[in-house]
Amino acid sequence: MKTSKYGINKVTITVTSSLGDLTEIYEIEVERQKDANNYLLMLYTSHGNLIPNFEKDFLEYTVEVANNISEIEVFVESEDPSCQVTGTGKHNLEIGENTIYVTVTTSDLIERIYILTINRAKRTENYLLSLIATTESYTHEIQPEFDKEVQEYIINVPSDVHLVNLSGRISEGASVTGLEDYAIYGKEKETIIKVTSEAGEPREYKVKIIRELDTNNHLTNIIPSSGAFEEEFIYGKEEYNLILDEDVTELSFEVQVESIYASVSGNEKQPVPKRRIYKNNNSNSRKWRYKKLHNTHNKTSNKQ
After folding, report:
1. pTM reported for the whole predicted model
2. If you write DSSP's letter for every residue of 47-109 in order, what string do you get?
């Protein structure tokens, strides 16, 4: 058997028939390449470890790095120093998956490609970094003083406040729900501010907005179902004389309150004694009463 040389070699194959009268000749060109040593002797990175451990015949590796690693450097050494290697050096890392190709090329341009998949972890920070409660241009006090580690807060607002905006800053890369406008028509409003990290880990902050009780229990008008007051209704005046015809046996009042949160009692239909002046004394003896919703400070009267 003849040993072929590097490069192009011609091989002649002759086929003769059994009678020896016919001969067919085949010529084949065979290219023998030089030994191609395009293996790496070592491969490693500045951060993390190769998974699996490096073996020159294995071409694909994974490296896990922390979120704060934004750059990685690839180091190699080829078995044949004459090979050209690309893909080494420093590489910027995006959050998530990054692919680096390390190519080893012989002088005859025969390539071997090693593939590195660098997984940069997502951010795990899920903090609310600040919290501000405002109504138009006014900023409300938050109790206790804000601290990102504290997860429950109370905000006291005046009785005339019906809309509070919650705003704030969150950790980089995180998302948030609950920083928005809140309409408040009752005594209090509870809400949850939820901050979710880039990695999907949630953190909840509980906020309770408490509206001060409205102490306004004034009427702006009183209209009797029968008869007439001796004088027109005057805001702040609490004593009136009402003149009724003798045949009136029942009486009720239509009232208008200054505060929408006030409630009224004593204005409902009630019997009236005959032959006497029906008098309402609102200073110490009030025939009807009115009060703010949830307000325990009631003004009560007795009939004269």
Report:
1. 0.59
2. SS--BS---TT--EEEEEE-TT--EEEEEEEESSTTSEEES-EEEE--SEEEEEEEEEE-TT-
Strand partners, 177: 194
For the record, the structure tokens of 71 come out as: 């750059």
Query: Comparing C-alpha atoms, which of 224, 298, 216 is closest to residue 267?
Result: 224
**Considering only CA atoms, which of 301, 303, 288, 275 is closest in space to residue 225?**
288
Distance CA 12, CA 9 (A): 10
What pLDDT sits at residue 292? 30
Q: In sequence order, which residues have a C-beta less than 8 Å from that of residue 88 and are 6 or more positions away?
A: 74, 75, 76, 102
pLDDT in tens, 98-137: 999 999 999 999 999 999 999 999 999 999 999 999 999 8
Task: Sheet with 181-183: list strands edge to edge.
Answer: 138-140, 132-135, 163-167, 181-183
CA distance linking residue 258 with residue 60, whole number of Å: 78
Residue from 59, 63, 58, 84 nearest 74 by CA: 63
Q: Phi/psi zone of residue 284: left (φ > 0), alpha (ψ -120 to 50 degrees), beta? A: alpha
